Amino acid sequence: MNAKENIIARLSIAGIPETPMPQIAAREAADTDLVRHFTAMLAAAGGSVVEKEPEKTIADVIGTITGDTSGEWAFTVAEGRFGVAENGAVWITDIYGRSRLFASEHLVLTLPRTAIVATMGDAFADPRFGFGEFGCFVAGPSKTADIEQSLVTGAHGAIRVTVLLI
Amino acid sequence: MSTHSKKAAAFIADSERAAWHDRALWHVRSKRDDAAGAVGEWEELRSEASEIKRHTLSHLVRYLEEFESNARKNGINLHWAEDAAETNEAVYGILKERGIRKLLKSKSMLSEECRLNAYLAERGVEVMETDLGERIMQLMDSPPSHIVMPAIHVRREEIAGIFAEKLGTDPANCDPGYLTRQARERLREEFMFASAAMTGVNFAVARDGSFVVCTNEGNADMGTSFADVHIAIMGIDKVIPDYRSLGVFTRLLARSATGQNITTYTSVYRRPVTDREIHLIIVDNGRSRSLADSSHRNMLKCMRCGACINTCPVYRRSGGYSYSYFIPGPVGINLGMLASPHEHSGNLSACTLCRSCSGVCPARIDLAEQIYGWRQTLDGMGLADPAKKMTSKGIGALMRSHGVFRMATEIAPAANLLPHFVLHNRLNPYYGGGRDMPRFARTTFEKLWKHGKTGLK
Fold first, then answer.
1. Which residues of A touch B222 (CB under 8 A)?
2. How far is the alpha carbon of A49 from chain B, nearest alpha carbon, in Å?
3. Interface of B with A in 19-38 (CB under 8 A)
4. Pairing between strand B203-205 and B210-215?
5. Are B128 and B111 contacting, i.e. CB atoms less than 8 angstroms apart?
6. Mutant choice from B137, B153, B248, B266 vs A, greatest count of A C-beta within 10 A
């Protein structure tokens, strides 16, 4: 018998009484102004939100956000599929190549302002939660508090995250 | 004295440092409170998480097989390992076959459980921890003292010192921002040229054959983004039915662990990118045996958030190194007993039965109740503390007889007049090296009541 068979055999005699999957309740948003809540929660996670003015193009605004920075890993722009208001996370799938999402110092994520859901419960049920090889909910810049619980923004991933609401 | 109290003596000897550690952990506990308090349905989420885990564990064979089938269809290489030895062999086998001599590692408590790092090092594979806390402990050649914040017990000056010694940084600069930047700069090149990266698994989704890794630093994702080979290791208890379940767990995990609404990165891996590989090792290492134990199978609901550790007053004031098991605090006391009762029964005394742990556990594990349950089994295993056993018998005899009890309460106040050393010595378990006995009241409430002197009408 191999490892899998042995493990399955032991599990099969564990004698655990069967219990059903619970009903997972649908939840109402804590704050019905999803854009405001998202903005506040992303700020709490160290990120920031910029709203695109209607008369400007996306390219223009991104130019303003990224400024004069240059270098291969200075910044990356990626398309966020949707955002989650309760925590400021944005769902991204690796259209442009995954490494850039993490290795770039400044990550700029475009996000349609109508594409914000209330909670992670809504997020996983959302039709836009789809992906191929890989997807990631990114909530602000990388961070660590491993040294004396002192929060440092910018560990190994992005040092700065800006969400551009379009 | 138990193993825990002996080791803790060293920790509390430095009372200023012990107080600092206590405050640091309590701060994390209070951040959890703020985060949980902002979620109106927090208690319902805990119940849902508990029930999802119970349901999954009661159908674990089905869900593991569903997960395996879907993961394989996705092109993920699946391996099964019965114990630590097989886990380590599987990891080494993957690396050796490909001639890979360096592994970039992000956090995995399972890898600590299997002592993977030492196994690989002995076979010429360099293992580089990339999580900052784990990296610090690796450079200090010491184990982590907490499952989420490995270096919570280390002061910034000490980190500056070890970085200066091992990495050549400025020994005078102990600013956390500076030290973190230094770690970032040095690891960046390692990530970009990595051949193999290892992650743990927070959740394995049976319905989709995908798995989830929750992190803050970006080290796990840096490693897996650049390396051609991604090795993930998981305990059999990590499988969950579907994404709907994730909608519950991802709302609880980070809030419980650090007080964040979510970790910076919640990465979902489904398929290897073209020309790359994902290997996933599913590990038992005693979990199937624990599942068969009806008093303790709840431990398999654990999502390793560390909330119980942060709240535990004994952990906060004794530190991770006071425990004999590699995981400290309430979760560690219980897992240690499941792993090896004889080796780890000393940790059972590291508990005041305050039940704060059971109160914060996002999966509603009855941590304190299980510790209490283990204590009842100690005598049967021949592991009961003889002094405590004798005291318990004595008090039992006292309490069973009205006459003896009454006499004792008559005599007791005389103890207040005895010289200090008579009651305060090693023979009195209450004394325990520092506490003074409470002073006995001069008369009992019963007597006062009978003489109408309680002030109550």
1. 99, 102-103, 156-157
2. 16
3. 24, 27-28, 38
4. antiparallel
5. no
6. B266
Distance of CA B456 to the CA centre of its chain: 49
The DSSP H or E segment spanning A163 is: strand A160-165
* Interchain pair A136, B55: CB under 8 A: no
Which element (helix H / strand E) includes A41? helix A34-44
Cα(A65)–Cα(A58) distance, rounded to whole angstroms?
11
Contact B187, B130 (CB under 8 A): yes
> What count of other Cβ atoms lies within 10 Å of the Cβ of residue B442?
9
Separation CA B153–CA B11 (nearest Å): 10
User: Residue B104's beta-bridge partner residues?
Assistant: B128, B197
Residue of B nearest to A120 (CA): B247
Amino acid, single-letter form, for residue B14: D
Q: How far apart are CA B410 and CA B425, in angstroms?
A: 23
- The size of the A-B interface in CB pairs under 8 A is 242
Taking 80 as the threshold, does the pLDDT of residue A97 lie above it?
A: no
**8 A C-beta contact, residue B316 and residue B21:** yes
CB contact under 8 A, A135 and B236: no
Residue found under tokens 């970085």: B163
Give me the pLDDT at residue B455, please: 80
What are the average pLDDT values for consecutive 10-residue runs of chain B, which has 457 residues? 90 94 96 97 98 98 98 98 98 98 97 97 98 97 96 96 97 97 96 97 98 97 97 98 98 98 98 96 98 97 98 97 97 98 96 98 98 95 88 90 88 83 75 75 87 80
The helix (H) or strand (E) run that includes residue A48 is: strand A48-51
Q: Which two tokens stand for residue B314?
A: 């004994």
Rounded Cα gap, residues B153 and A148, in angstroms: 8
pLDDT of B456: 73
Given the cut 0.90, state whether the ipTM is greater than it.
yes
Please give the model's pTM, rounded to 2 decimal places: 0.93
Q: Which of residues 88-147 of A touch B (CB under 8 A)?
A: 88-89, 98-99, 101-103, 119-125, 129, 131-147
B288-337 tens-digit pLDDT: 999 999 999 999 999 999 999 999 999 999 999 999 999 999 999 999 99
Residue B65, class by beta-carbon neighbours within 10 Å (0-12 exposed, 13-18 middle, 19+ buried)? middle
DSSP code per residue over B353-400: ---HHHHH-TT---HHHHHHHHHHHTGGGT-S-HHHHHHHHHHHHHHH
- For B115-152, give the DSSP string: THHHHHHHTT-EEEE-SHHHHHHHHTT---SSSS-TTT
Q: What is the 3-state secondary structure (H, E, C) of A97-124?
A: CHHHHHHCCEEEEEECCCCEECCHHHHH
Asked if the Cβ–Cβ distance from A156 to B219 is below 8 Å, we say yes
- Would you call B40 an interface residue with chain A, using a CB distance cutoff of 8 Å? yes
Taking CB atoms and an 8 Å cutoff, what residues of chain B touch A20?
A: 55
CA distance B369 to B375: 10
Q: What is the token pair recorded at B416?
A: 């207040």
